[in-house]
Design brief:
The chain is α+β, with helices and mostly antiparallel strands. 50% of the residues lie in helices and 12% in strands. Helix 8 packs antiparallel against helix 13, helix 9 packs across helix 13 and helix 13 runs parallel beside helix 17. The model has no long low-confidence stretch (mean pLDDT 94).
């Protein structure tokens, strides 16, 4: 099957500002599309994306997930940039505090914090749906669970956003993000069990070094696996959930009338938000699929957001339907590299939704300001008002 080509630049300003329209154009071009402007093959449609993500021995992550050679050439010991047995070893360690069972110990704390937050926001004439609402749980609780010292806590949001931005091609956004992203790498390399909070997730990773399970540089870089995914992606999805409830007629009333829809709400919000547009993988050998073949040695962009918006799979895919419950969405990935923090993210978003049901009568938002990031999508600001229930 011949792979079609497109002159679209995945990382242009036009694409970042009009991602839904551009991704639909790519899906209509083909399930796999060659993009000479980026020297990439893009996998665009739902079924093809899932097949590509499952083919993790062919389309590998161990040679980097960026769209530029510099970042892909930086030695990395993170779980994301690994494959096979090495990936499994790191992920098993990473997941110890992040599994559904382990998270039960923090569930009540998250619920109480969400309640206190929403009660406070109801009293305000206006607040930012990103900084004041969506960022609260990740910054106040998750950062504490990771257990970084104060200097690390102060820089985490900037570090996390820059880490994703640096995964684009070597454009101006990537160049500007590199120094900040390298700051995170430099910081974690200074960590030791003595410099992090006792009992925190970071300490648990670092104490694997004396046991000989992890190398020092490996343990330090695995702390990054907690920092970036725990912040931006959850924040962006939570802000999107708030915006959808405010702007979709009848949605919040439907949720208040039937709070059992909270789990469905979270899935639908993450599907439509798709905070991570794409990651790339490297074709270690020819990738052969029903959608076409990609030659060995190619760099492949897997478009998570495009899959989530694919009208071939979801009826009225561009519509927010609170009762759709798309449990197969790819907002948290799929296969071996699915998001390690998705259970925590779900717990946070569900806590926020339940708190709004209890304490908020109606939600109003003003037009949001979008972020400009090579990989992340969502809002930088979202003026919001709560009316008390």
């Amino acid at each position: 099957m011949t792979i079609p080509e497109s002159d679209i630049d995945l990382f242009s300003e036009d694409t970042l500002l009009n991602t839904e329209r551009i991704y639909k154009q790519l899906r209509d071009t083909g399930a796999i599309v060659r993009l000479p402007a980026n020297d990439l093959y893009a996998i665009t449609q739902f079924d093809a994306v899932r097949a590509g993500l499952r083919a993790d021995t062919v389309l590998i992550s161990g040679k980097g997930v960026a769209a530029n050679d510099f970042m892909n050439g930086v030695p990395s010991h993170t779980t994301l940039i690994s494959d096979g047995a090495l990936h499994k070893k790191r992920r098993d360690i990473l997941m110890r505090p992040l599994g559904p069972g382990a998270l039960q110990s923090v569930k009540d704390r998250i619920k109480a914090s969400a309640d206190a937050l929403v009660v406070d926001l109801v009293q305000r004439p206006q607040f930012c749906g990103v900084k004041d609402f969506a960022s609260h749980l990740p910054v106040s609780i998750v950062v504490d669970l990771i257990g970084l010292e104060e200097s690390g806590r102060e820089n985490m949001l900037a570090w996390a956003a820059a880490t994703f931005d640096a995964l684009g091609p070597m454009n101006s956004r990537t160049e500007q993000a590199l120094q900040t992203a390298m700051g995170l790498i430099a910081y974690v390399q200074t960590l030791s069990p003595e410099t992090v909070k006792p009992g925190g997730w970071a300490e648990a990773i670092l104490t694997e070094v004396p046991a000989g399970i992890l190398a020092p540089e490996e343990a330090a870089m695995m702390v990054v696996d907690y920092v970036a995914p725990a912040l931006d992606t959850t924040i962006l999805a939570s802000a999107h959930m708030l915006w959808r409830l405010a702007t979709t007629p009848g949605a919040f009333d439907q949720l208040k009338a039937d709070p059992s829809l909270v789990a469905s709400l979270v899935n639908e919000s993450v599907r439509l938000a798709s905070p991570i547009r794409e990651f790339t993988r490297f074709a270690a050998e020819d990738f052969v699929s029903d959608a076409g073949s990609i030659p060995a040695g190619a760099r492949v962009a897997i478009l998570y957001a495009s899959a989530n918006w694919d009208e071939r799979h979801y009826s009225e895919a561009d519509q927010f339907q609170i009762d759709r419950n798309p449990r197969d969405h790819i907002g948290w990935g799929h296969g071996q590299h699915s998001c390690a923090g998705m259970h925590l993210a779900r717990m946070e978003m569900e806590a926020l939704a339940h708190s709004m049901v209890k304490h908020v009568g109606s939600i109003e938002t003003e037009p949001p300001t979008v972020i400009m990031n090579n990989v992340l999508q969502g809002f930088a600001e979202l003026p919001t008002r709560f009316q008390a229930a």
